[in-house]
Design a protein that fits this description.
Elements lengths: L2 H22 L6 E3 L5 E3 H17 L4 E4 L11 E9 L1 H6 L5 E8 L2 E9 L4 E6 L4 E3 L2 E2 L12 E4 L13 H10 L2 E3 L4 H9 L5 E5 L3 H13 L3 E3 L12 E5 L4 H8 L3
Parallel strand pairs: 3-4, 10-11, 10-12
Antiparallel strand pairs: 1-2, 4-5, 5-6, 6-7, 7-8, 8-9, 12-14, 13-14
Helix pairs in contact: 1-2, 5-6
This protein binds D-MYO-inositol-1-phosphate (IPD) and calcium ion (2 copies).
């Protein structure tokens, strides 16, 4: 597998889609509701079209899993996992925290990830086994080793009004133990902020593969850990994501697994 071609393509495509998001920020005029608080804008769809057309042109045999279209299944071990706009609620309000997330999977393993924040012009990348980078500079997780000094991040699922399994209980427990918590509104960027040491721990439930495919690899390659809530093996197709600088992982799993 020529990973150079994959990397160059992912970076170029993330930047192109990011430019489209930046150009249109503040100009959204059509919002559709997928659920009570789950929205999609015409910009999500335009970004997705751009990315899917690029993949079809450069890698026509590869599968594509994206948020807003049916999965493109192919008889290939290679699959692109795309969130064309992570942080749609922020985007629709002009709150400048959103990104494009592109993950590349081979035989079920994420091998490359790129997350691009067009507002700060920050591009996070990681290739399996090769480290994590922010705008080409190597990054690593923080050295905070006490929850009480940690800045944590989380998010709430779109079904929070309908389901009791909505993270409010964990949120109140962590609020009393961490230095502070942020709910910034983009899971992919939250993970990249763990990787770059801005956040020390992050947990969220009911995420989808496109939210975490790229970001989870970026955390691991920056020296962090990603698991389910009890410290077990993480899957991008699973329901729980706990990411940390490794040092806070034990304390966080104790709260998240009610031990
Ligand atoms: C959402 C964001 C948010 C998280 C949600 C995600 P979207 O993705 O990542 O931070 O809390 O669960 O679905 O809908 O903006 O692509
Ligand atoms: Ca998302
Ligand atoms: Ca999205």
């Amino acid at each position: 597998m020529d990973m150079t071609a994959i990397r160059d393509f992912a970076v170029e495509t993330a930047r192109a889609a990011g430019a489209l998001l930046k150009e249109n920020v503040g100009k959204v005029n059509r919002i559709e509701f997928k659920g009570a608080v789950d929205i999609v804008t015409e910009v999500d769809r335009k970004s997705e079209e751009l990315i899917m057309a690029s993949i079809r042109k450069s890698f026509p045999a590869h599968g594509i899993l994206t948020e807003e279209s049916p999965e493109v299944k192919q008889d290939s071990p290679c699959k692109w996992i795309i969130d064309p706009l992570d942080g749609t609620t922020n985007y629709s309000h002009g709150f400048p925290f959103f990104c494009v997330s592109i993950g590349f999977e081979v035989e079920g393993e994420v091998r490359f990830g790129a997350v691009y924040d067009p507002m700060l012009d920050e591009l996070y990348t990681a290739e399996k086994g090769k480290g994590a980078f922010l705008n080409g500079k190597k990054i690593k997780v923080s050295a905070i080793d006490e929850l009480g000094r940690g800045l944590l991040a989380t998010g709430f699922p779109y079904d929070l009004r309908a389901s009791k399994d909505n993270n409010l209980d964990f949120f109140s427990q962590f609020s009393l133990k961490a230095q502070a918590i942020r709910r910034a509104g983009s899971a992919a960027l939250d993970l990249c902020y763990i990787a770059s040491g801005r956040f020390d721990g992050y947990w969220e439930m009911k995420l989808r593969p496109w939210d975490v495919a790229a970001g989870s690899l970026i955390v691991e390659e920056a020296g962090g850990r990603v698991t389910d809530f009890s410290g077990g093996r993480f899957s991008i197709y699973g329901k729980e994501c706990l990411a940390s600088n490794k040092l806070l992982h034990g304390e966080m799993t104790r709260i998240l697994s009610n031990k």
